[in-house]
Amino acid sequence: MKLLVVEDDRETALYLAKGLNESGYTVDRAGDGREGLFLATSGNYDAIVLDRMLPSMDGLAVLGALRAAAISTPALILSALGSVDDRVKGLRAGGDDYLVKPFAFSELLARLEALLRRGAVTAATTKLRVADLELDLLTRTVRRRDKPIEVLPREFRLLEYLMRNAGHVVTRTMLLEHVWDYHFDPQTNVIDVHVSRLRQKIDKSFDSPLLHTVRGAGYCLRAPEPQASR
Amino acid sequence: MIAEKLSPPTMGAWAAPQWVFGNAHRLVRTHAFRLAALYFLVFAVSVSGVLLFVYWTSADFVERQTEATLDAEITGLAEQYAQRGLSGLVQIVAARSAGDRGDGMLYLVTGPDGGPLAGNIAAWPAGVPARGGRLSFTTAARVKERNETHPAQGASFIIPGNYRLLVGRDISDATAFRNRVRTTLLWAGLVALGVGLLGGTAMSRNLLRRVEQVNRTSERVMAGNLSDRVPLAGTSDEFDQLAANLNRMLDQIERLMTAMREVTDDVAHDLKTPLARLRVRLELALLGGLDGIDQKEAIRSAIDDADRLLATFNALLSIAELESGARRDESETLDLSEVARSAAELYEPVAEEKGFVLSLATEPGVRIRGSRHLLSQALANLLDNALKYADGGEIQMRVEHAAGRAALEVADRGPGIAEADREIVFDRFVRLERSRSTPGNGLGLSLVRAVARRHKGTVELADNRPGLRVRLEFPALAA
Q1: Is the complex ipTM more than 0.90?
Q2: Inter-chain residue contact B349 with A184, CB threshold 8 Å
Q3: Is pTM, for the whole model, over 0.80?
């Protein structure tokens, strides 16, 4: 997997490149908007990490130029501007996700991987399956080992998001954004309780747990080791 | 204060030497003066034009009348001479000279010796050349038993045989008329120009005075007195509008400055301590004596500290942005019940786990205009607080109509807030428990108030007997 990091702050760029390298990605770096646009149009990247404020060409302008040239490489925008309005502007300009600086590397990695996967999941899917857990998007029912599991509507959305990102870390912030559409972090551990309730329902009466807590990062829904697809 | 001393004195009475001389140089450079000068110039030119036209049409008209009469007379005499010769001419001149016709016509025919043959002038006027053509001369006239010399205009002709004819007209009346017109117009012009000069000066002085007020206010503001405002004349003209706009701008600047100063003060006071703690933690990790696992743990705590600091910082910035009005969040029509339901749904599990009973009572159609994001965040802060400070029991959320307003309430069964403290808890970093053992940054209620104000709403704390009741009220949209 090849990534492009467009970031003018050298320190941040090096830190991102190092972290992403260690996570198994090949990383190219660009220090300003023009170079970023040039690399993005010529190279074949799987995803772009794009700072919003860049010298010579604004990040959103780079994105606009890319999208105008029908290059649909998923892009994650990094920005110090955090209001909902800024976020909306970034996404309208063609960004696929928006992360406010400063951020934890684990958060960036989780979001980037979600972006990279997005293309792989076909939209026509009506059933999601992880090991013996099955979620039917049409009937909105959940079954495990063919036993129906009662879930509340919000729990269904939570599980759907986790299953769509099965095998990967999903942060609390990602869950708040995608399941609740909240773009702030509550001080109370509200998400943890939701997840543990969900875990009660899908894992409790079964011997192999699927929903795992990843310390310092978030959660991961994955099949037990022997059948692991990763 | 210094600025006040340095600034020029008010334009006093208009004759004040200070203004006439002391500020003359400065006056000349002002736009108002140039405007007034231009105004005066245009005024002077047009007044002169009008007066000249009046002079020309009145005085010259009389003059042309005189000439026309003369011409007619000469034509008549020439015809007589042509028909009846010299004797006929003498006859007709004698006839026309007889009696006082009152039209001031003068005639004289002289013989070859220069002696008069007929006419109403005694002798050929002195200094008038004995040749043909147009001429001006003076003639003696008796007016009310006094001899006067009157100006006259006419023409003379040489008649064969060395006879001469002089036809003229006394133009003393015309001249007097012309002089009177000239004098009148001159005075009228002077008065008009004087009035114009005064008007222009007054106008420019008035303009200057009002611009001066704006200038002096801005000087004082620049000198640091941010609360100074431009006085309004109460005339609601352009200057008042300008002053009002400037004042509004100053209000906004003052608000921004105050918000910024508060943030800076708060940062200095309350972020320094955790930063120092973070530094100590890192230094300890560096000093050694810790094995790999402990070191990792120390770094992890340091990162947690940094995250908390960042969260505090972001919260501060949000509040400052909200209070200064610099932030532009999209606003939409919201059903408050929906906003509350969504937050309740998010918090219900954690409340239950901590031994609370979270309930929500809604009324249909409680709608406001606002940002779902901001309101949700405010609500989350209130719920966080209830979970943090109360020790179980009910948490009641309520959305209702309240006399044309939309109300949103969160009430808990915790210790509540003493009446004396109900205002100060909205200030930044205020946390009532002295030990500060519960996590939190003391910004929750500050943000709630900023959000309420942003939505033109209010926030009130009340006693829930026991517990705390926080009530937000917003202008409601018609159902």
Answers
A1: no
A2: no
A3: no
